[in-house]
Design brief:
CATH topology: TIM Barrel
CATH architecture: Alpha-Beta Barrel
Radius of gyration: 18 Å
Number of domains: 1
Strand order of the largest sheet: 1-2-3-4-5-6-7-8
CATH superfamily: Aldolase class I
Helix content: 40-55%
CATH class: Alpha Beta
Largest sheet: 8 strands, parallel, barrel
């Protein structure tokens, strides 16, 4: 049904020009850099892409541009989420997703649905989706966590639901998912810091924010761990600790954008309500980027 989402994925940023329009030339440079540095697949229009600030025309333009730039070299996942189930369905069916490979859809935010509400939300999405669906559990942003039991229930209820991006930070719940999931259901780390421990207990990789800035390092760490070379993976994990901390101290994607600006890849522009990192964080990130 779908291409593999095993390995290192990146939650791609959306670069903007000084006038706040989408910088497609910079986006192309980032896409090429990711592929050249062995990233296995791209995730566009996620949280890191500042998708909440993009209009429907811009979203489709980004999908079209990235799919054209990638030209089938690696899989592409498109983020489509809302706290209105019908909005997700309408977006999926109205957008041209013919060259994408899967949809990533976040647990409904703000509304704080029950576990039954979450289940019914995803079942409606799976029924309508033209593509395989990856669940996305990130309670730090949604104010509600999808339980392991609900995740397993969904994995068993629909063949269209092929995996979950787990950013709960709760290894106990993630372990339950890995223990009880059906064969072929993928558990993907949504936290760079938990990439290594999650693979060690059966996860298939990561959808990384840090990979925007240091794609080769994240790809290497992921591939070492998936190959069972935990000594090399652990050494790289420890080496990345300082830059990983700096990337998130002033929020995401502000850190990733500052890092990419420091090496001349993009302009350091975000759309409100997000703002660039402070000067001290920028100096740290620029120094750290010099080590990669």
């Amino acid at each position: 049904m779908s291409k593999s989402f095993r390995g290192a994925g990146v939650a791609l940023i959306t670069p903007f020009k000084a006038d706040l329009t989408v910088d497609f030339e910079a986006l192309g440079r980032i896409v090429d850099s990711q592929i050249n540095n062995q990233i296995d697949y791209l995730v566009i229009l996620g949280t890191t892409a500042e998708t909440a600030t993009l209009n429907s025309v811009e979203k489709q333009q980004i999908v079209d541009y990235v799919c054209g730039r990638v030209a089938g070299r690696i899989p592409i996942v498109v983020g489509i989420g809302s706290n209105n189930t019908q909005t997700v369905i309408e977006s999926m069916t109205s957008m041209n997703l013919s060259k994408a490979d899967a949809i990533l859809s976040v647990v409904p935010y703000y509304s704080k649905p029950t576990q039954e509400g979450i289940f019914q939300h995803y079942m409606a999405i799976a029924k309508a989706s033209p593509l395989p669906v990856i669940l996305y559990n990130v309670p730090g942003r949604t104010a509600v966590s999808m339980s392991a039991e609900t995740t397993i229930r969904l994995a068993r209820a629909s063949d269209k639901i092929i995996g979950t991006k787990e950013a709960s930070g709760n290894l106990n719940e993630i372990t339950k998912i890995l223990r009880d999931k059906p064969n072929g259901f993928s558990v993907i780390s949504g936290d760079d810091s938990l990439l290594l421990p999650m693979i060690s207990i059966g996860g298939v990789g990561v959808i990384s924010v840090a990979a925007n800035a240091i794609p080769k390092a994240i790809a290497d760490l992921t591939h070492f761990a998936l190959a069972g070379d935990f000594k090399s993976a652990a050494e790289l994990h420890i080496r990345l600790q300082s830059i990983s901390d700096a990337l998130f101290v002033d929020g995401n994607p502000a850190g990733a954008k500052a890092a990419l600006h420091s090496i001349g890849l993009i302009e350091n522009v975000l759309r409100l309500p997000l703002v660039p990192v402070n000067e001290s964080t920028y100096i740290i990130l620029a120094k750290e980027m010099g080590n990669f």
